[in-house]
Every structure is written in structure tokens, then in C-alpha cells.
Design the sequence.
């Protein structure tokens, strides 16, 4: 948060801060013994981040701080995948051992393209939601 503090002291008037997605849902860790630990760490991080943002906003009332809640967005996509045109919450490709094995013919219907990365469709959804936040923020950012 030191970098954000520095930005606010210098010139920044509108800042979007992104929280952590649900790493425990990534195919690389689903079903592993690390998944509950990642869930705990992610929830603690996101809670602390929200508290810090609230504190910063009190100290810098002339700056618009917006939290982009990617955690809730990804969790919602995972829980309501068919609403988003997603047919699988697994990975479409296997990239283990530094090789590429395509495991599906329609990756745009998957959340994850491989064990660690979202598909283009999910990235577009993230971008669309970030744009909505920008357009509706209390700052002076306007739609094109």
C-alpha cells in the first residue's frame, strides 16, 4: 500500500485497487491440501485490503479510491457458470511438464485455459466489469 500512498501524495486522483481472485479454485490446486490454506490467505488479504482502502480514503478525501472486487466476480462465475456461457470450470489445456495438450475444442466455454490462467472470455468479463466500475465511479472518469 506504500505505492498507493505515494501516488496519492503526488498526483493521483482516481485509483482502482484490485483484490485477489479465489486462488483455491484454480485447477492447479483444486482438491489439493493447499486449497483450504489458499482460501484462508486470500480471504484475509482481501479483508485487510478493504480495511486499508477505507483508512486511506479517510486520510485522502480528495482522491477517489475504488475497489475492483475480482474475487466476487470470479466466485460468481464459478458458482453460476452456465449464466456466463461457461460449460466447464476445469482447464481446457494441460500444460504440465512444459508441454501443451489441448483437452477441449471450445476453450471459450471454459473458465480456465490451463491450470493457472483464465480464458479470453473470462478476461473479457473482468474487463467489462472494470469498465463499468470506471464509468460509474464517483470520480470524473467518463465513458467514451
Sequence:
Amino acid at each position: 500500500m506504500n505505492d498507493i500512498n505515494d501516488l496519492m501524495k503526488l498526483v493521483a486522483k482516481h485509483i482502482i485497487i484490485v483484490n485477489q481472485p479465489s486462488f483455491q479454485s484454480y485447477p492447479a490446486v483444486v482438491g489439493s491440501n493447499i486449497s483450504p490454506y489458499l482460501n484462508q490467505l486470500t480471504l484475509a488479504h482481501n479483508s485487510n485490503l478493504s480495511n486499508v482502502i477505507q483508512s486511506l480514503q479517510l486520510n485522502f478525501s480528495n482522491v477517489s479510491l475504488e475497489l475492483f472486487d475480482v474475487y466476487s466476480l470470479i466466485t460468481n462465475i464459478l458458482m453460476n457458470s452456465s449464466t456466463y456461457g461457461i460449460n466447464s470450470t476445469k482447464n481446457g489445456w494441460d500444460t504440465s511438464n512444459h508441454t501443451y495438450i489441448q483437452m477441449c475444442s471450445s476453450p471459450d466455454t471454459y473458465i480456465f485455459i490451463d491450470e493457472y490462467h483464465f480464458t479470453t472470455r473470462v478476461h473479457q468479463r473482468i474487463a467489462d466489469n472494470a469498465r463499468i466500475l470506471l464509468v460509474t465511479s464517483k470520480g470524473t472518469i467518463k465513458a467514451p
Notes: Strands lie at 14-18, 64-68, 88-91, 93-94, 101-102, 110-112. The longest helix spans residues 35-59. The chain has one domain: 2-136.
